[in-house]
Amino acid sequence: MSALPIAEHALDPESIERALRAGRVEPFVARAERAEGVAGRRYARELAARAFSLADPGSVAIALRARARALGIEEAAIGACEETPPPHAVRVPLFDASAGEALVRMLWIEFDPAGGGGDRPALGARASAAFADALAIGAERAAPPRAVDRFRLVAARPRALEGVAIDGESLGAAALVSAVSLWSERAARSGIAVTGALRGGVIARVGAIAAKVRAARDAGCGAIVVPAEQEDEARSANAGIEIVAVGTIDALLEATLVAVRARRDPERAVREARALFAEGWRGYRWPAIDERLARVAGTLPDARPDLQIEALSRLAAARRHLGDPEGSLRVLESARAIAEREADAIPDAPLTALEQQRAMTELKLFRFRAAAQAARRAITIARRARLRGEHIKALGCAGLVEMGRRRDDAARACFDEALALTLRHAPEDAARSRVYLMEALGRLGREAEARAMWRAAMDEVAEDEPGARGKKESWVRTGWGGALVALGRWSEAREVLDVPAVHEALHEHPLPGLRARRHLGLALARGDDRDARERGLHLLASSTLAHGRALEPGLRSLAHVNVLVEAEVRVASARLDEDATARTRTALAALPTWGDAPRWLGAARGRVERALESHVELGRALQELIARCEAI
Questions:
Q1: Contact, 92 vs 194, CB < 8 A?
Q2: Fewer CB within 10 A of the terminal residue: the chain, N end or C end?
Q3: Contact, 54 vs 159, CB < 8 A?
Q4: Using one digit for the tens of pLDDT, what is the confidence trace for 296-330?
Q5: Global confidence as pTM
Q6: In whole angstroms, what separates CA 502 from the centre of its chain?
Q7: In this structure, what DSSP letter does residue 404 have?
Q8: Is 613 exposed, middle or buried (0-12, 13-18, 19+ CB in 10 A)?
Q9: Per residue in 448-477, is it b (16+ CB within 10 Å) or e — as a string?
Q10: How many angstroms from the chain centroid is the CA of residue 588?
Q11: Which residue in 279, 287, 350, 278 sits closest to 324, CA to CA?
Q12: CA 312 → CA 45, 115, 329, distances in Å?
């Protein structure tokens, strides 16, 4: 290709990074098809999965996705590029001066409720000024529902552009198109790249126009919008795509936006976002959910603060699941500000949900006292308003916080109350409460009560339709398996966990898959059969590879805790070799550093690091660190 000449047979490290930055996939699929040997095929598939996860949504052809699936490339990565782009997304040619090449990536503006989130990718001074000008001009063409300084520029795949210097004024026209599209509810036309600087009401010339035109062609765009004064230069690139020359903002918007406005229905927008949120872990949809919720939150009318708080609470949860608990907390603070400002207009349901999310985010930040306080507020609000479903969930949040604090009896009391409420009002949905309760009882050594919970939960599973049992059964078995491991019942734990329903979770669902992997791995590794022990160690060691993109970045540390468990088992049997030691060091480096994690984990992590060098008290140090990691 002209702008990015990457031959399939010449994927050297530099070419690989260039192709990934440009969102190219085909060279990596072709390489995987030709790869030989177990290690070669595995590396090629992993590289192809990375390329898919960095490709812009909607940019990879159906035939190419079919070739990837035939190779067994990670489904979550392929699914990432099948997401529907937001209606205000724009394809933008960028010129990377450091590499001397152009590429096209999808960008859009996004509501940043708390402010301070920063543009993604980072912009240089001139690009940042051009973006600010675009927002100001856009606000004159379509009234923004929020202050313009609460909107930022984001890339569909920010990680693809890490390290790319983005400066200059050429993204101004594209940013304007995205802003007017979002604020006027007129969708941006697909398949069109947009480049041009803004000079008042004129679309002004940009640099490297020929390279940008060729990059648009190579990215599969059918047309590119360019400044009118550069029409001849753009056509001389002989790229074989349509050149749309515009000289004014009116012409720019006419060429890039559809004429018909969507009809915004706040209730429907929140309802659809709510349904999407419920599917977050299926194929790892959190990035798309994050975008949708930010879009909804940024366009809801001021007259509906209740819907704003619900959208922001769910957005905070999505940010937490994406591994950004500090960003999650900023969003929650903005929601709380609305709740305080509109206290008389907010019903109790969104308020208790807000406090539940606050509890879970504070827990993720290892701020246990703040988490417990938020959980108590959620319980108080739900109980006062007689919101039984929210009351049950709030009690569950409180129990999880107490388990994170290693206060198992307090957790048991919360789960016990939640179960009692569930049995009175929705007995057919009691399995989840039983799961949490049986784990707490197992950790307390109360085997008979935990076993009663297990039997009752499995009776509930048996009442479901056969096709609907799998996920619930895997959760129930994982919970009981965890209780059995805590009780030291290794043989029974193997029988409970080594079944098809749990096997599917091990490979398909990061939750409960990672916890099931830990419990089954431990149960197998503690047995007498040598092959079973090796299988158990492998289950633990391979946790970081099991779910691919779905672990990035929110669950990565949880997978690494399983690696620490593997190390503890190996130390106990004097089998900690160099490879396992290297994995342990990697796992230590991958533990959370956000919030109060350094204070909660730091000393225990330091003891493990020192013990790895001295080989003194390593097993005890690992046990202490693993126990503290329960908060993860």
A1: yes
A2: N
A3: yes
A4: 999 898 899 999 999 999 999 999 999 999 999 99
A5: 0.88
A6: 23
A7: H
A8: exposed
A9: ebbbebbebbbebbeeeeeeeebbbbbbbb
A10: 22
A11: 287
A12: 37, 13, 11
Question: Which of 111, 116, 186, 108 minimizes the C-alpha distance to 148?
Answer: 111
Look-up of token digits 């929020």: 146
SS (H, E, C) 510-525: HHHHHHHHHHHHHHHH
How many other C-beta atoms can be found within 10 angstroms of the C-beta atom of residue 572?
Answer: 15
Task: Give the three-class secondary structure for 201.
Answer: coil
Angle of helix 388-404 relative to helix 368-385, nearest 10 degrees? 160
* Amino acid symbol at 152: R
- Strand partners of residue 226: 245
Token reading at 615 = 């080989």
Would you say the C-alpha torsion 232, 6, 54, 75 has a positive or negative sign? positive
Decide: 309 and 339 in contact? Cβ < 8 Å: yes
For 550-578, what is each residue's pLDDT tens digit? 777 778 899 999 999 999 999 999 999 99
263 band by pLDDT with thresholds 50, 70 and 90: low
Q: Which residues pair with 296 in a beta bridge?
A: none
CA atoms within 13 A on the CB side of 416: 11
Distances 52 to 22, 24, 28, 120, 535 between C-alpha atoms, Å: 11, 8, 9, 19, 30
Angle at 92 between CA 91 and CA 96, to 5 degrees: 140
Amino acid identity, position 222: G
Closest of 357, 329, 321, 365 to residue 113, by C-alpha: 329
Show the 3-state SS of 455-509: HHHHHHHHCCCHHHHHHHHHHHHHHHHHHHHHHCCHHHHHHHHCCHHHHHHHHHC
The C-alpha atoms of residue 369 and residue 377 are separated, in whole angstroms, by 12
Question: Would you call 422 exposed, middle or buried from its count of C-beta atoms within 10 A (0-12, 13-18, 19+)?
Answer: buried
DSSP element (H, E) containing 101: strand 101-111
Residue 188 DSSP code: B
CB 375 within 8 A of CB 391: no
Angle, helices 172-184/249-256, rounded to nearest 10 degrees:
60
d(CA 479, CA 457): 10
